[in-house]
Design a protein that fits this description.
Structural class: mainly beta
Largest sheet: 5 strands, antiparallel
Helix content: 10-25%
Order of helices and strands: HEEEEEEEEEH
Number of strands: 9
CATH architecture: Sandwich
Distance between the termini: 33 Å
Strand order of the largest sheet: 5-4-3-2-9
CATH topology: Tick-borne Encephalitis virus Glycoprotein, domain 1
Amino acid sequence: MCRLLEKQTGRKQDGNIMLVLFRTRDESIVVKELDGTFIVTVLQVRPCEVSVLVKCSSVEKWGELNSWTATLAPKAAIKVGRTAKVSLIDIRGQKAQVCVDAPKSTDVHRLDVREDIHK
């Protein structure tokens, strides 16, 4: 999980990096690993939990899109791909504070930023 020290430095001792950001309903995070791309979208923010949709496109199965939903309580995490974890740190009003913990080789961006990069 993301600890205060990790939030301050942005680095963990095991060589992973982490990104902490706020997301509201319908905002997404893109996690791109060597074996596929994952889009994590906030579906609903409630006072004690957040529902997310995870969409995955695999390099091995070109054109196939898998998706699943999860409900996260604060401090809970889900594994996205082989190495990345997405955890819910806090909920503030209609905003979810989300942490993505992934190896340095993994690209992690807000969806809107990724779209700007690839224009």
